Amino acid sequence: MSLKGNIKDFQLDEIVRFIEAGKKTGALEIQNGPEAAVLYFKKGSLYFVHRGSKPISITEKVLNSGIIEEDIAQKIKSGKIFPPETANLSEEARKKVAQMIFDELVEQTADIFSWSEGTFVFKNNEKRTGEDWGVTIDTTRFLEKVRKHSEVFKRFSEHAKTLKTVIELNKNISPDEDIIITGKEWKFLSAWKPGMTIEEVAKNSGISLLTAITLATNLMEKGLIVAKNEELKEEARESLPSEQETEKIVQQIRKESVEEKEELIETPSEIEETLDEESLIDELAAITGTLETTIESSENTKKELESILKTLKEL
Predict the structure, then answer these.
(1) Looking at the predicted structure, is the pLDDT value of residue 294 above 70?
(2) Taking 60 as the threshold, does the pLDDT of residue 248 lie above it?
């Protein structure tokens, strides 16, 4: 008989511990409206998570990471070594693979453990052999890590429905309101472009999805950005702040740079190494949603951006 039920009646961490205790092999299918996930276990240990129509392959990530020797990687890719758990890895490589898989599993499941409703069913002996590296996950450590990250998703869900939600600058910020942002939050804003979702910002900035969600949540709680529905994405791509709105945002960012110098950006040298004066001005303009043509046509806005540049160089 299959294990099945409703998330309202059983917490997911309890289900995972039950599977571990019973050393079960199979797949835990979870459905929460349009969201779905399949967690694969081998003898009670989680080893792979299937999300969406194009799941992230742990094996592909490991093979492209450079962690294992090239000849072994090629044999796994060609099928000469299968499943991956039979590969003769060094102890150091095996530890790195185990950590990489652990981190990937946490990132892929953190939001699932924040779900308060939905259904689940465990199907015995369902397997994804090609994703099995023979790694045994410490369930207690895994659940502790996931629990911390799921708290972020709960905070995030108060502002946005899904990760497909488009984010944009808040046009209703009071010009007298001081908003302090950290260096990491600044990096997130630097990678943002009008019409982007959080997933797209994460990809554009090179930061992990969990980190992007944390930063976006912080910025939404500070009132600097707001969420829009996915169906309004194309409209969001076409809508940019007006010149007056842009100047308000510039004024606020200027205050942040003066009042919280040590948090705004890591070091002045990092700015000089990556951006010259003109490109930094363009970067600041991009963050506020100002088009290049707007900068050229507005001498006042450009002066504001140059003033921010001067302030940053004095940090």
Answers:
(1) no
(2) no
Helix (H, G, I), strand (E, B) or coil at 108: helix
Q: Which amino acid is at 147?
A: R
Residue with token string 């079960």: 24
Contact present, 113 and 150 (Cβ < 8 Å)? yes
Interatomic CA distance for residues 286 and 194, integer angstroms: 9
Report the distance separating Cα 194 and Cα 236, nearest Å.
6
Q: What is the DSSP string of 211-229?
A: HHHHHHHHHHHTTSEEEE-
Overall pTM > 0.70? no
Q: Which amino acid is at 44?
A: G
Q: To which residue do tokens 């499941």 refer? A: 109
Instruction: Look at residue 141 and give its three-state secondary structure.
Output: helix
Output DSSP code: residue 4. E
Element (H, E) at 273: helix 268-274
Handedness of CA 262, 265, 267, 268 (dihedral sign): negative
The yes-or-no verdict on residue 100 having pLDDT over 50 is: yes
Cα–Cα distance, 226 to 50 (Å, whole number): 30
Choice among 106-110, 156-160, 207-211, 281-285 with the minimum mean pLDDT: 281-285
Q: What are phi and psi of 128, to 5 degrees?
A: -130, 75
User: Rounded CA gap, 15 and 288, in Å?
Assistant: 45
Rg (CA), the chain: 23
130 touches 59 (CB < 8 A)? yes
Residue extents of the structural domains in the chain: 3-151, 166-313
